[in-house]
Amino acid sequence: MGSMLQYGSLAKYYDMIYSFKDYEKESRIIATLANRYKKSTGNELLDVGCGTGKHIVYLKKWFACTGIDKSEYMLRVARRQVDGVRFVRGDMARFEMRKKFDVIVSLFSVIGYTETHQNLALALNNLSRHLKSGGVLIIEPWFTKAAWKSGSVHMHTYETNDVKIARVGFSGTDGSVSVLDEHYLIAEKGKGIKHFRDVQRLGLFGRAETLALMRAAGLRAMYAKRSLAPGRGLYIGVKERDLDPA
Predict the structure, then answer these.
(1) Cβ–Cβ under 8 Å, residues 65 and 59
(2) Beta strands in 49-106 (DSSP E)
(3) Of 17, 16, 74, which is closest to residue 49 (Cα–Cα)?
(4) Are the beta carbons of 97 and 87 closer than 8 angstroms?
(5) 99 and 125: one domain?
(6) In total, how many domains does the chain have?
(7) Which of 200, 204, 216, 208 is nearest to 235 (CA)?
(8) Same domain? 19 vs 113
(9) Residue range 33-88, pLDDT digits in tens
(10) Does one domain contain both 67 and 157?
(11) Which of 14, 138, 204, 239 could bridge to 131 as Cys pair (CB 3.0-4.6 Å)?
């Protein structure tokens, strides 16, 4: 899984690093799709891999939201900045909420962190198991192997009067896994400069592979070209049958 500092000790800088994201616009798209495809009559939504809760800030206008994330560091930030929402720690492949939802979303390519075909199947089965009959699952995928640009480099910066952040990264490949080797320089007023290296590994899952696993999990699955991030599209699954009716 790599060092994953972005979701650990760097969590307090996460919203600064991704300040370019338009969470409000993305949430409107998700709400529109959820209401278009779901057949259940409720409005309970589970955000899996909710991070700092930035999508839930807007999604809670339309849905009764719950957030779940593997990182307690990210959840601490979410609880501080989003009122009236329950945030729970859990792994997407193994969490147990003991209830079902009308809408489940997994955004910003969190699904890629399952890394292997086996873990992806476990996660999709678990998500499906937590959907009501007629409920809808919306997944924002990571890149496919064909779309991944191995060997490319990237840089992103963020600055205010008190904080300056530079993130420089190299994109590599290890078999069917993408490897992001990223270095952070963070300067804070009155504190100095810190350097961090963060290595992340995300599975490069094929479209046909993912759709087949969604269908095996009891979902009527489709791929939508409409994207939150350029070129990634969205997977949409509507719950058709329960694998464990009990």
Answers:
(1) yes
(2) 64-69, 86-89, 101-106
(3) 74
(4) no
(5) yes
(6) 2
(7) 208
(8) yes
(9) 999 999 999 999 999 999 999 999 999 999 999 999 999 999 999 999 999 999 99
(10) no
(11) 239
